[in-house]
Design goal:
- It is built from 13 helices and 17 strands.
- The chain has helices spanning 12-19, 49-64, 69-83, 108-134, 153-158, 169-172, 190-196, 252-269, 273-285, 307-313, 324-333, 344-350, 397-406; strands at 22-23, 40-41, 88-91, 101-104, 140-144, 162-164, 184-188, 200-205, 211-215, 227-230, 237-240, 300-305, 319-323, 352-355, 363-370, 373-381, 387-395.
- The strands form 6 sheets. A 6-stranded mixed sheet has the order 12-13-17-16-15-14, sandwiched between helices.
- β8 (200-205) and β9 form a beta hairpin.
- It is globular and about 85 Å long.
Length: 414
């Protein structure tokens, strides 16, 4: 009897990255640029939302089911045929800056590029997220030789590089590093890194019969100065390392974590309370935001929105933030789970505001009972007038009553 093997389950980090994007209809691939791809889904010339939605839904299915291009193509063909978009069509530039262009989504070459870029970005981001979770035990990254039959010389120069997970090199050189790039990286332990550094080995022959030798080093080769690239659609000037295609000079997973934060801070400051609460819940549900406590650099995360608290403390904005360091400290020292911090938007919005138990006039205690658990958070106002979460604790009612009695504050729920 033939054994039927189930396909490997696709890691949730991969599907979460792709499904967490928002649709961004665009005339040119230059309209959605670099880091923007971390949270926006776009297909060049798919200017109509229903067309873009067809690409997104079928891509999502293919990624979730671990399907390759040949399995995905019939899915998108069926959907685009329904919409009358299977075959050559004229597309107008919504900005009016460029003349109408012909697009053929039935082109095998175009479809392969669309599938490759989306599937590989998701896998790349998923790998980076897993690396961040496991870097305590496997703290180094090894750049692996490409499987391409015609590799780019610059990419070959990076093969054998071994650097710590949080080294700046991986912010720009995390594969793929260009269109159809097949480079890969592998996560290794400090012990394996020490054993490889300074050594070399032959891994095969090139087409001319010469040995292919990998030399392991912790030194990044000098390929010359970074290059200036001007986006001809937006005018944006980007610095791109040599050997990397413009637009592929970002780390998808890292970009997702940082751009989620940067793009929401300003929106939350002017949002209505109910809108802010919804946005914050969605933000903290995104797995890529939860990477932030593991990042090497300090990151401010929007964690709540409370206009009444801002008024009481004289803050400049109702947005309440928490540092990645604070979360990491609570997780490491106090054995909390990162999932606990997903409750912050609700605690900071719906909790009861009380004086600081230590008597600090620039601090308030926030208490909220969720289910059977009591949660306490301290929020302070900084010198420039920003609200900051200093801590988060789960306490018993008995503990909270005793602490409030010490400072002469009555139990608010009598």
């Amino acid at each position: 009897m033939t054994e039927i093997r189930k396909p490997f389950a696709v890691p949730p980090e991969v599907t979460g990255y792709f499904d967490g994007k928002t649709n961004a209809p665009a005339f040119s691939y230059l309209d959605v640029w670099a880091e923007e791809h971390a949270y926006k889904f776009t297909v060049a010339k798919a200017t109509e939302l229903d067309v873009l939605t067809s690409f997104r839904s079928t891509m999502s299915q293919a990624i979730a089911e671990g399907k390759g291009f040949e399995s995905w193509k019939p899915l998108i063909e069926k959907e685009l045929t329904k919409l009358g978009w299977w075959g050559p069509r004229m597309v107008s530039d919504p900005t009016g800056e460029h003349p109408d262009r012909m697009v053929n989504f039935a082109s095998d070459r175009r479809l392969r590029t669309i599938f490759w870029s989306n599937a590989n970005s998701a896998r790349s981001a998923g790998q980076w997220e897993r690396v961040q979770r496991t870097k305590k035990a496997l703290g180094y990254i090894l750049y692996v030789r490409t499987t391409s039959a015609d590799p780019r010389p610059e990419h070959l120069a990076w093969v054998g590089i071994i650097l710590p997970v949080d080294h700046p090199f991986w912010q720009t050189h995390w594969p793929p590093n260009g269109w159809l790039c097949k480079c890969q990286v592998r996560q290794i332990s400090g012990r394996e890194a020490a054993g490889l550094l300074g050594t070399s080995r032959v891994i095969g022959k090139d087409p001319d019969g010469n040995d292919i030798t990998i030399r392991y080093s912790d030194q990044v080769p000098d390929l010359g100065p970074d290059l200036q690239h001007r986006n001809r659609r937006t005018g944006e000037i980007t610095t791109v390392p040599p050997g990397i295609d413009p637009g592929w000079h970002t780390n998808p997973g890292l970009a997702r974590a940082s751009t989620l934060i940067e793009n929401l801070e300003s929106k939350l400051a002017v949002a209505a309370p109910e809108d802010a609460q919804k946005v914050l819940k969605e933000l903290w549900a995104d797995p890529y935001l939860r990477i932030a406590p593991r990042l090497a650099e300090k990151v401010w995360l929007p964690a709540g929105h409370n206009a009444a608290l801002a008024k009481e403390l004289g803050a400049t904005s109702p947005v309440i933030s928490i540092t990645s360091e604070t979360i990491a400290e609570r997780i490491g020292k106090h054995k909390m789970d990162v999932e606990d911090f997903t409750l912050l938007p609700q605690i900071l919005s719906d909790g009861t505001i009380l004086p600081d138990i230590a008597g600090n006039l620039n601090v308030r205690t926030i208490l909220l009972k969720i289910g059977k658990a009591w949660w306490r958070s301290f929020v302070s106002v900084s010198g420039p007038g920003y609200l900051r979460v200093n801590s988060l604790h789960q306490k018993t009612e008995k503990e909270l009553r005793r602490q409030l009695e010490k400072v002469g504050t009555a139990w608010p729920w009598e």
